[in-house]
Amino acid sequence: MNEQKIINFTSVKTKILSMKKILFSIIFVFIMANSAHAQIDSLISYCNAYLQYPYISDGQQYRSILTQGEVAEFRMTFFGGATYRIVAASEPADESVIFRLYDQNRNELFSNVNYNQSTYWDFKFTSTLECFIEAELPQGKPSGFVIMFIGFKQ
Question: Domain range for residue 108?
Fold first, then answer.
């Protein structure tokens, strides 16, 4: 007996369409990931421009993805006798970030809100101090990527 194989073309078509959707999704995710990576590279370059000689980066990138109202918090030890520079930015690179410096007791030591949301600020510490740095998006920006660099003076 010869068995005839019947191919269900509807089933094959559905599988091909599903595979196309999966392939399209993978390509879309890849493109978006590359776009996000390009934005990060742009922010890193922007921040590094403020950490030129005589400042040296501490080698860390303090970054967070925030929505309006969220605050990123970073902990840092600043050593007495040293001068530090904090640089903060959001995409697009010229977009300001609000950052505040607090001591261990949550006393506000500095806020760039009082200085036109400056991109960077220099600090000289007379004694070693454990601090908290908070970063947030300015009012009206619904979400975004925030990056901060900290450098010290040679």
Answer: 46-153
